[in-house]
Design a protein that fits this description.
The complex is a heterotetramer, with two copies of chain A (522 residues) and two copies of chain B (249 residues). With 522 residues, chain A is of the alpha/beta class. Chain A has 20 helices and twelve strands. Chain A has helices at 14-37, 41-50, 63-73, 81-92, 96-104, 118-150, 167-179, 215-232, 247-256, 268-273, 277-293, 305-308, 315-331, 354-368, 387-403, 423-440, 443-446, 454-476, 478-483, 514-521; strands spanning 38-40, 157-162, 184-187, 237-241, 261-263, 297-299, 339-340, 342-344, 375-377, 408-410, 447-449, 503-505. Chain B has helices at 33-45, 93-104, 122-128, 156-165, 182-196, 214-219, 232-248; strands at residues 20-27, 49-60, 63-71, 108-114, 145-149, 170-174, 204-208, 224-226. Bound molecules: cobalamin (2 copies) and pyridoxal-5'-phosphate (2 copies).
């Protein structure tokens, strides 16, 4: 598959698609002023990381957290952490990391820093972030270089997860998977990390259902994949989760360590982790600025809606949300080519003709987002302990994917209902996908859908319903829509959930670091 | 027709008592004839006879995957198997509401949550939320039940506090993530907390999740446990039965 | 699927199809005089069975074999066994079974029987076969009755084999399979039975890779399937092999015991069992007369070609042979609705786009034989010991089948490369096929093939090549074609192979029993 | 990185030495909780720990199918494994022809067949016929080899007669059907026939087929055995090596 996707097999009404985009933009525009006028503790921590601050104190608390507490204590946060550090560096003539260390052992305080001319502060701030922003740019170039010199897999990319909880076992399994043909390796995060309001530090070997996302773990895995990729003559992409209460910080860490793909949704945390929506909208905006700048493909999480809602009834909510994620991404200047919008094959296989509806939905997303490296998720909800049946369901998923030109193909595992993948599960899954993709490689170009058939009609109806839903949201606003449980049938309150206490209004003196990305990403 | 001796049950491939089973596993040894022999020896040492390594596949990095067919000589006495089961009758929604009204004379109060780091609410929602599961309405839809679903990632302390506050009859706990026996840790934590506070007998304690069953839950110190395919009425029947039994005492 | 198959998706040239049929008819016509003027020991034995003769002598030799030896000894065979028995019955005033018993213990001989007026002999022969022919008619009606009262599965029919070697284990497994949704149960024959020039007798429990085909085994299985079918409210069809040196006898046995489907090819025995071709052509003709009369669906064995030849290169040989089998069937007055022509999905899955070619070939056979209950065989040759991979290959096969409207769908087994199916293998396979068929039920109607795409072109080319091959055969004759190894790349000589000594020219006095079927089947 | 102790190898699930394996089998017991418990007990009795019956499915007629994951404690000493292998060098077609010409000085004569009831000729054809297999030409294509393929369902007697008649150096036998160990019976029959006639040492005797390997063939009294993935040159190299060795003797 080469994007943009060229076919128009569903006879979709182009004006419906345009209308949906206008509505989605409107909805995002409604909350943009709020987003731009606020920041959060995690945004500020990520700015500290961009200044080069890392490490933990003797008790293991990350320096960025300690500093934010300090700034908060002295009511300096509203001006932005960057301003305090620019001033402190100018004043103490020390680098941020040294200053951070001193702050951490209470050898120094930022209280009562003398003021400097605004221009000097801005200049300092820019100079301070220069090295890491350059490192990010270099990583981006490095990726582009590897892709062009080593070569890339072909779409649909084979994407598998490792989730042993131990980064070293993960590395081993990731390498095994790469040798077997995986194009993308995702390291799944430990259960519960998303609700931590700090990022763990160093290499870790004890996670549940996943491995902690730490910068060191990112580095270790990146190195391993570069090594095996070099050997295989194929660049192996690395994925992690830019999600949860530390979304922006993880974006920085990922950008620095050359992750290639990040799970990064504008609303997932709200809906599935009960993170406060104000917090999330601000965090996602900033994290996406970084992802966009770093050339990282974001993956959105609409597939998750279908784990709590019925995949047939809620098909349009996925599409509507894709439109919103697209507009949120545009707001952070992420181009379509970096927007891996998510969707899934989750219809109950007991529904007669389930596959036809799946094809309709998959093709619909493909055609509406022709430039997006859309992410297609395998059956999970209706997987059972019968691994043989599961292998069949996954085979049909592979067929659907290659038939509809998906881009990022998450491999289904025959043991989905049982455990995070064993080494052999991943192997069997890769073998299956490779077989199907090879065998059906050009099926897509060989078939047309019957005019006004079930497939076309289901796709058209889904689009119509999505437009209807967006119209509704545009009227009531996104906050209200979330309160009404319009996504995944889960309702959240604007002031409920975790992390609201980390949100604050920027003061008029706030030093806005997002401007930096403007310059560089253009 | 082959006649089966239920005192001596063996796996059945295509002939009675042939003992044929299928296995697959990975060994951390490099692919090759020696690997194949290692797999065969593993099977022999595990007590199988005539093991056939039907395929050995190179996973890379010094790992090899095998599929085997082998014969087992292990026999099970099927006649001796007794599975502990819930003793009460399984009632329907309308019967439950009626019995609460007539026999208990007040609402039954039930709190539930998916505790600690676990965020899989679909299971507990299936039991508690209005909508229910597979056409079986959830506890919220019962007129005579006060059902309070706290959702996901609720700490044991929070859950206990809530149970106190609403004077709950029963506490329902869902645990879905089982990797490294996390569910056992979390479930045990709740029991310990209750015992610590001398409250273990104050509430009926019920666990549920894909890897939970009655036996396991009892072992962990719960009053009952429910696995896949449970509906609200299963849980409500049980809770009501026990609450009524307590009233009588 | 309802037959005749209505679509024309491949843009096939109808005149090519017509030409192929004309050529095939010509080829069959060329050897028809030979077929009609000859008979074989097995044809004669089957006539004895139609007279009601069954059982074995104390040494276990079937009476029909003993009698044929007797007739041969006295040069009576050329006149047909029916004539001798008609005469003997007239003369001794005994029934055929009694006479047969007496012949067997040499209490009596047919040597020097007095002659009777021709009309009287013909009449007697007809009267003698009346009861069993009626039994066959009744069985046919009985099947029709069951199908209409109990109900039938829907196409593609799920066809599984049992092959334990023990009829009682077979019965158990057949019932299990029926409960799991199987529509057709085939009892596979023991290795080597096809080369026996007699049919074993009674219930059997010792076969290798299959269970002996005996009339008693047929009866036992029929009874079991009727029982379970009654319970399930679905008629379960029974299949066996009308093939090998006893082809015509097995046809009689199957007709009497209400088998519903018979593996019954015009050339399989020649090619794959090295049975003499003269013998085979005569035997297959007579066996098909019976199958046609009994309302039994025959299944041809072209799928086997692809076990020795490459499925892509030899695709046209399958089609050419289908045309020949069709004409041979017409010669025996078998209507299209009883002609389950065979083909298979056997392309090496390592071939890029293998699935497209498979679809092309499957659709081609479907469209060219729109009324035939075509039989589609699963991957066998490229199955490996990796049962998980095998399950994927079989899933693709299931997809191909439902996408192209196949009629009789032989289930692939994940353990194909390993052993005849275990009970659980069959179950997993049925589960897979049911899932795929339910999920993709109407996919067929939802897709069209791209004009001049790979699929259409491959189908058109295959048809052209088949025409070319038939032209060649028409020129050289079928005997020569077989000698040249044009099918399955296996070459056979007209006077080579087994069973030629059982062939004889009918004398002018030969009493032709085929006439009986004419009357009844019309 | 986990370091592997090759003296103690255990199955690998997702962590070194976790011992995880997958099993599936059928028990002739009616579906239900008791069946599930029977499967669990079978696994425990077979020596596995923490067996998880992840699915139990009703096959009907009193049979139940199970999939299990369990942990194995069996260890294998990988360092002690030695697989007997052919001792000679594997040569290419052209080398073989050259060596026959130069060292043997006459044609090598090889007869082959698929014996007794077995009709699976694809394997023996792959070795013997002109066309060969996977791009590896068969023995018929060798200038210096007289290869006579008798085809399928050839009785042992017929094959032996032919071998005599052509003064064969080697007899190749293919056996594909293995149900109820039919292949072992047939292969043994051939050896016995040769021994009976005092001819066991007259011919090199080579077996092949999907379930044949060197070790098994040796046990059965053959000179060598070849399994899946064999090509003509493998067999020719072996035969030539042994024939030359005899000449030298
Ligand atoms: C849906 C789903 C999710 C959704 C959850 C959405 C939500 N709001 O619940 C999302 C996408 C968010 C998710 C996330 C994760 N998931 Co998840 N998820 C699943 C999935 C696909 C289905 C679970 C489900 O909904 N089943 C349907 C319900 C109805 O079944 P049930 O829970 O068994 O409930 C029934 C009974 O058990 C019982 N019951 C359940 N609870 C209770 C309680 C009581 C009191 C009673 C009486 C009865 C009862 O009644 C219910 C109805 O009959 C499973 C795989 C699968 N097919 O099972 C993986 C799975 C459970 N997830 C898994 C993992 C690892 C995760 C993550 C940790 C991955 C990660 N690192 O990011 C995250 C983090 C979640 C967290 N912090 O816990 C693993 C767990 C592995 C293991 N055995 O430990 C699984 C098995 C997938 C896998 N193979 O890796 N997941
Ligand atoms: C093709 C095939 C057929 C064809 C055979 C055509 C022919 N002319 O050979 C047909 C359709 C006729 C057939 C029929 C039957 N078959 Co069949 N068949 C197969 C199939 C699909 C492939 C076998 C094959 O060709 N493999 C490819 C060759 C190249 O591999 P190979 O034989 O292993 O050979 C290689 C090596 O082993 C080695 N080798 C082999 N022989 C020799 C000899 C020497 C000397 C050397 C050095 C090397 C060597 O070199 C070869 C090349 O590398 C298998 C299933 C499978 N996928 O394996 C079933 C299979 C072998 N058949 C089976 C059965 C049961 C039958 C029947 C008995 C069924 C029946 N009752 O009707 C019949 C009867 C046949 C008979 N009398 O023997 C079973 C055997 C079960 C068992 N383990 O016992 C199998 C496994 C299918 C199944 N799962 O049920 N079959
Ligand atoms: C967009 C997105 N973010 C995050 C996650 C994972 O959850 P957590 O944030 O708890 O690691 C998912 C799960 O699939 C997801 O889709
Ligand atoms: C037409 C036909 N006849 C017969 C057979 C079986 O062989 P045998 O006659 O040896 O039982 C097959 C095998 O698939 C076949 O396709």
């Amino acid at each position: 598959m080469t994007r943009p996707y060229p076919h128009n097999k569903l006879h979709l009404a182009l004006d419906h698609i345009a209308l949906a985009r206008t509505l989605a933009k409107d909805i995002v525009d409604q909350i943009t002023p709020f987003i731009l006028s606020h920041s959060t503790v995690s945004v500020e921590r990520s700015i500290l990381r961009l200044l080069g601050i890392q490490g933990v104190d003797p008790e293991g608390i990350p320096l960025p957290n300690i500093i934010i507490d300090h700034l908060k204590e002295h009511h300096l946060l509203e001006e932005g952490a960057a301003r305090s550090f620019a001033k402190a560096c100018l004043h103490f003539k020390l680098d941020p990391q040294t200053l951070a260390g001193q702050l951490a052992c209470r050898e120094r305080s930022f209280e009562d820093l003398p003021d400097f001319p605004e221009e000097q502060i801005v200049d300092k701030a820019i100079t301070l972030t220069q090295p890491l922003l350059e490192q990010i740019s270099n990583q981006r170039q490095s990726r582009e270089h590897c892709l062009s010199s080593l070569g890339d897999g072909s779409e649909p990319y084979l994407y598998v997860i490792v989730a042993t909880g131990n980064i070293y076992e993960d590395v081993l399994q990731a390498k095994v998977a790469a040798r077997q043909g995986a194009d993308i390796i995702a390291v799944i995060r430990s259960t519960g990390q998303s609700l931590l309001d700090y990022v763990p530090y160093g290499p870790t070997t004890e996670g549940f259902g996943g491995t902690f996302a730490t910068q060191e773990n990112f580095r270790i895995m990146r190195e391993a994949l570069d090594e095996v990729g070099q050997e295989l003559g194929r660049y192996i992409r690395l994925t992690n989760y830019c999600s949860g209460l530390c979304m922006p910080e993880i974006a920085v860490m990922g950008a620095l360590e050359r992750l290639d793909v990040m799970l990064n949704d504008s609303m997932y945390g709200i809906i599935f982790r009960d993170i406060n929506m104000q917090r999330t909208f601000i965090d996602q905006y900033f994290s996406r600025l970084i992802n966009g700048f770093a050339g990282i493909i974001i993956n959105t999480g609409e597939d998750n809606y279908l784990t709590t809602s019925d995949a047939l009834e809620a098909a349009h909510t996925v599409l509507a949300s894709n439109f919103l994620n697209e507009q949120f991404a545009f707001l952070s200047r992420i181009p379509e080519e970096q927007q891996g919008l998510g969707h899934a094959m989750e219809i109950n296989p007991d529904v007669p003709n389930a596959f036809l509806y799946e094809i309709a939905q998959a093709q619909l997303i493909r055609e509406i987002f022709p430039r997006s490296p859309i992410k297609y998720m395998p059956p999970t909800k209706f997987m059972t302990g019968d691994i043989f049946r599961g292998h069949v369901q996954d085979t049909l998923f592979n067929v659907a994917s290659i038939m509809t030109g998906q881009s990022i193909h998450l491999l289904g595992m025959l043991t989905e209902a049982l455990h995070t993948p064993l080494m052999q599960d991943r192997f069997l899954s890769l073998e299956s996908a490779k077989l199907v993709f090879k065998s059906l490689r050009h099926l897509q170009e060989e078939i047309r859908f019957t005019t006004e058939g079930v497939i076309q009609q289901h796709a058209q109806t889904t689009l119509q319903k999505a437009v209807g839903m967006l119209e509704e949201i545009q009227k009531i606003g996104l906050f209200k829509a979330l309160e009404q449980g319009m996504f995944a049938e889960i309702s959240r309150k604007p002031t409920g959930g975790r992390g609201l206490d980390g949100v604050f209004a920027k003061s008029s003196k706030y030093l806005n670091p997002s401007a930096w990305f403007d310059v560089r990403s253009s | 027709m082959p006649t089966i001796d239920y005192r001596q049950i063996r796996p059945y491939g295509d002939t009675l008592d042939d003992g044929i089973i299928q296995l697959s596993f990975t060994l951390p040894v490099p692919f090759g004839e020696e690997a194949q022999e290692a797999a065969r020896r593993w099977a022999l040492q595990s007590g199988f006879w005539d093991p056939k390594v039907v395929v050995a596949l190179d996973l890379g990095e010094g790992f090899t995957f095998f599929v085997l067919y082998a014969c087992s000589t292990v026999c099970i006495d099927f006649t001796s198997i007794e599975v502990p089961k819930l003793s009460h009758e399984r009632l329907e929604k309308s019967e439950i509401d009626l019995l609460i009204r007539t026999l208990l004379g007040r609402k039954l109060v039930i709190v539930g949550a998916c505790i600690e780091s676990d965020a899989h609410t679909v299971g507990i929602d299936a039991i508690m939320n209005m909508k229910g599961y597979n056409g079986h309405k959830g506890l919220e839809s019962y007129h005579e039940i006060d059902a309070i679903n706290l959702g996901s990632q609720v700490s044991c302390e929070e859950l206990l506090t809530k149970a106190h506050e609403v004077l709950a009859d029963a506490i329902l706990i869902s645990q879905v993530v089982t990797q490294k026996s996390l569910h056992l840790q979390n479930l045990t934590r709740m029991v310990e907390l209750l015992e610590l506070e001398g409250l273990r007998d104050r509430f009926l304690l019920v666990a549920g999740g894909p890897r939970i069953n009655y036996e396991l839950a009892k072992e962990l110190g719960y009053d009952a446990g429910f696995g896949p395919g449970t509906y609200a009425e299963d849980v409500a029947s049980f809770v009501l039965d026990r609450v009524l039994a307590r009233c009588v005492k």
